[in-house]
Amino acid sequence: MTKPYQRLRDRLFTPEQRAAHAAEAEALLAEMPLAQLRQAMALTQAQLAEVMGMTQPSVAQMEKQADMLIGTLRSYIVAMGGELELRARFAGGDVVITQFRQGDGTDAEGSLAS
């Protein structure tokens, strides 16, 4: 008879190790490439391509790019149901860059940009 994973995990790892593992998993989920983000959202390239009005090979190519236009990235994120926020990090704190919001002065949801 097998033991439940949680009981086995509790025997193998100390509470400190389990907390470290949980923190590492959270950090990995907070940062990921576009393809992994799409997969985590349970979307295929074909589904995303349909929402974006492009072909599946175009989405595949986009996911491999190391550099792209901010508007293209915004379209990709919005097609998954998200909102793109551009943030610069400095030693003194973070600054949200507002210059690259929608060209009509609204944000991704159509609200007036501040």
Strand order of the largest sheet: 1-2
What best-fitting shape do the alpha-carbon axes yield?
A: flat
Q: Calculate the mean pLDDT score and round it.
A: 84
The topology string of helices and strands comes to HHHHHHEE
Strand % is 5-15%
Helical stretch tally: 6
Radius of gyration: 20 Å
Which regions have little confidence, pLDDT < 50, spanning 5+ residues?
A: 104-114
Distance between the termini: 61 Å
Indicate the percent of residues in helices. Answer: 40-55%
3D architecture notes:
The protein is mainly alpha-helical. The protein has a domain of 31 residues. 51% of the residues lie in helices and 9% in strands. The protein is built from 6 helices and 2 strands; from the N terminus they run ααααααββ. The protein has a two-stranded antiparallel sheet. The longest helix has 16 residues. The chain is flat, with a radius of gyration of 20 Å. The protein starts with a helix and ends in a 17-residue tail after the last strand. The C terminus is likely disordered.
